[in-house]
Amino acid sequence: MVEWAQIVGSKGPLLTADGLCKAFARVPVLWPVSLRLEAGGSVAVFGPNGSGKTTLLRLLAGVSRPTSGTASICGHQLADERRAAQSHVGFLGHDSYLYDDLTGEEHLQFFGRLRGLRFDRFELLGTLDIVGLGRAGRARVKSYSSGMRRRLGLAWLLLAQPEVLLLDEPHVSLDRDGQELVDELIRGACRSGHALVVASHDTDRVAQLCERVVVLDRGRVVYEGLSLDWRRSGPLWTLGAAPG
Amino acid sequence: MMAQLMAIVRKDLLLEWRGKANLNALTVLALMIVLTMSFALGSDPTRLRLTAPAVVWVAIVFAAVLAFVRAYQMESENRCFEGMLLAGADPRAIYLAKLAVAALTMLVLEVVVIPTILLLDGIALGPRIWGLLPIAVLGTAGLSAVGSLYGRLTMAVRAREVMLPLLVLPVVVPIVLAAARASDLLFHGPAGQLGTWVGLLVVADVVLVTAGLLTYESIAED
After folding, report:
1. Which residues in chain A are closer than 8 Å to B9, comparing Cβ atoms?
2. Confidence (pTM)
């Protein structure tokens, strides 16, 4: 059973992005993107490969600096208070951020200490059980499959309980059980007042989980609206052929 | 910040212990450098004794550069460095932890290498060996301060094994010079100038660690 702490007493939006742009070597990869998520808000980001989904999530996570524009997490500006902002963010990206020679449990304890959290053994084992890694928690990560690494990332999110969740292709590498676990995690997080940004190619699945949809194409926002409207007009917005 | 520093030191030492082939390889490399230079310098015992401090520090510097490459190699795999930042690590804690672990690794290596060359070159291991301890600690701290900073700078560079020595070696010249001169004076005298070189090491360490702390945050991000 996935359990999220209820977000209470949130004043103002949990996440705001205002005109975020990114260029690499003066080549723009993301044109101005603006977002605003209140507690319990969720947005799905769709787009073909290279459309800027991961770039957007990395900017929101504070691991990449925008060329222009601003973003804030729980009232902390990423440009000026990056660490304070990141303490409210959980980022599940393409990279596992795991050391091959540490065990799953050691990773969770290590990341917890960096965030000022202490987990008792009961808490750790319980969370590892939820994500289906109960027995593997004491094994070194080098013996993990990519799906197991993904599950360990989910375990970290459940333990850290960040207010803002940034999930980049969260269903990738997971078996059917794992994908359902991600669905349950997203639904539970929304119900508990967390804010979510989910980038995915699995449009049918993720559009059902999030309340809004943003579609990117070659770095530009080409659609923004309610996921209900997206699902109705879905066939017109086949990814890779979005009208410019 | 202290709790973060300790957590990163613990993690790095655990990884170092589990992949201890790294320390073994560094020690063997340092010993090979010492032996090769001893052979190249010939069999004149006086010359060997006089050059021993310089040989030791050259061996330590080259082994240290490899240790710095390794320290950041494990952070670049799976973007682990970024993972630490995302988990909320203070970049200054990362810097000090990298510095501490690199220094500890080098000190373990020095415990093997320094007595070996002293024995090889016929230098008596008297009570003066304890005088070498602060020189080794100060010299190693200075090297680690530079290596931990430049290691991060070159982490994302494809040819980092080449780039890191090119950046580190010119900067550590004053440390190597001071450490080698202080070691030389300790064993061969006159001891009067020893304080000057040890003082230089202290000043260099303070300047380098301060510079590292002030600049690391800006280079830690993407």
Report:
1. none
2. 0.89
